[in-house]
Amino acid sequence: MNATSTLTPKQPAEKQGIPQPGDFILDDSRIGITDKEFKRFSSLVHREFGIFLPDQKRTLVVGRLQNLLRKMKMKSFTEYIDYVENSKDRSVLSELANRISTNHTYFFRENDHFTYLREKVLPEIVARHEAANNHDLRVWCAASSSGEEPYSIVMTLMEYFGKAYSQWQAGLLATDISEKVLRLAMEGVYPDDRMQQIPKQLQNKYFKRHGADRWKVTEQLRNEVTYRRFNLMEKNFPFKKPFDIIFCRNVLIYFDQPTRIALANRMYNVMAKGSYLFIGHSETLGRDQTPFQYICPAVYRKA
Question: Is the pTM of this model over 0.85?
Fold first, then answer.
């Protein structure tokens, strides 16, 4: 059938682009999700990952898991949920996290945060460390996705310190729940269109051409980031030393309010006095529900 055909009275219906019986085969193999299954699945995702799935996300859930259920030869979401809940294999939850989490990001996203980091936060924290004769600057990017944010943070640090950077233990811990995006981040290869937010001088300094239309982070930049898989729903954070700066941006939006507050409190407990927390501009923490001091939109401080 030619979709661009012009309809004329002299043409038979099948020549006019009018669908005829047998033109389409309906895909009845699509696995639907019932109200009961979606409620159970939402509880599972919230319990394991803290992600809140309102009813409006039902189509998204079906779309993201459809191929997986077919691949596993499962006939219903009940069968899949039973499998996940009863499995002792860690990779099963990892696969679910890879498919259900959203990983939209880009270099220097919400750029005013990086300006504030460079002009306000770093001078204050560095002065405090130098007064204590301590050069251990600890930074955590808690939702690193495919690497754009942690590399943006490290570029900001390296540009701020300049030649003095080598005198500091100033690397960055980057974590995410998705092993898939962590592999992309560690590879550090990005197409041309993902590089547009990076100033040219930084692009030429911290990236090298990798083929005709891609760029790869330099070894120097890559070595300053430690990538680890970590679930923010862990009740006890296993960090031995407190952080000076935490970026946890554009992830709280997927949590309900009690989960956001509980996570903020856990982060507060692993931060040094006077340290800073950055969240996304579309997110907020209740000013009277966490011990953080509100500084400016999406920036909080442990007083």
Answer: no
